[in-house]
Amino acid sequence: MLDPIFSGTVILLCETGPKGAVGLVLNRPIDLQLKEVLENPGAWGDLSAPLRWGGPVGQERLHALHSGEPSDSLAQEVMPGLTFGAEL
Known about the structure:
Layout: E1 11-17, E2 20-25, E3 29-33, H1 34-37, E4 50-52, E5 65-67, E6 76-79, E7 82-84
Antiparallel strand pairs: 1-2, 3-4, 5-7, 6-7
């Protein structure tokens, strides 16, 4: 990508299609844990998973990349054993 904001960024491309692409930034950690940003952590609340900054696009959303099988209809398997998305 030619935009300098993505210089040195590692992106896992999760989906492509006629409307565009969805990817997750893997190498830009921020000093927050998942349990610190969810209003109602519920089952996710005990996670101390580190977060990554993925901007500048879609900063109003929290996306999840986790091991295991898709747990709901919003999740999709990116590759065997690696799932993108979940209902947070």
